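Handout, page 2. Input:
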Amino acid sequence: MNEKDTIEIVKQALDDEISSLIHFRDELDPSVKDCIDLILKSKGKVIVTGVGKSGDIAKKISHTLSSTGTSAYFLHPTDASHGDSGIVGPEDIVLAIGKSGESEELNYILPTLRKIGAKIVGITANPKSKLASLSDIVIITPVLKEACPLDLAPTSSTTIALVLGDAIAVALMELKNFQANDFALYHPAGRLGKRLSLYLSDVMRKGERNASIPVDANLETILKEITEKGIGATGVVDSQSKLIGLITDYDIRKYLTKNTLLPTVTAKDMMNANPSSFRPEEKAYDVLIKMEGRERPISVAPVVDERGQFVGMISLHDLLQKGL
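Output:
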């Protein structure tokens, strides 16, 4: 078999799954709306269950729902038969996934879950199945053809179930007005979560770590502060701790190449009186983009509050260390 034949096989599998998805979308069961309305009105959580490949899809759907503002858990039917059904409450919604709708393990637990008080939403390709008969709401997921050449291995059918779960999660997000800040709350460790949730106040050097000198500081004081704080710059403040300038290593070198070094030189003589600065409530990732995106990128910048008080210093190194 040559490479072209392999590529054609892959394309055919993709075409089969795409065709089934398009058919499912065009013939979308209106019961999907009933399912979403039921979840929105519920005071409980969503329990997603299934066996085999459908169980794998159920796990993914439960994770997607949980991360987008809808409390959800995966429940394996076998575990449910041996005590784990205790996780299900009378206010809960159960999404039960099964292409044929005839899985004994899945159907065995549904009457118990209904007795607990949970509502059952069956997701199946077989409207005459036992799963359908045990469900309060049935979403039919017709499959034109499995991508498997034998039309046996779950391929198109699991893709449809997965996409349906994603679509339900997205609809719930919009109807609940789930925002980026909400998303960040559930994803604090990942890069995306950090970009959404980390503010400059969380990252900046402040307090004793912040490099700061008075406007009349001499060269020795300037160099000592920059060296001790290890950020390559220092803010210059007035008597009320308001920022009036910034001195970087570059500013010192620039001054010394153009002027004679006199004992009377002060911070006021060397400082940049109009430095770029940021506010502590700005998102750290936005500041990173601004610092790198300038025509002449800057590696360090002061942070001032709404009153002009010098409250911290931020460097590109600090931002990048946070994994932004």
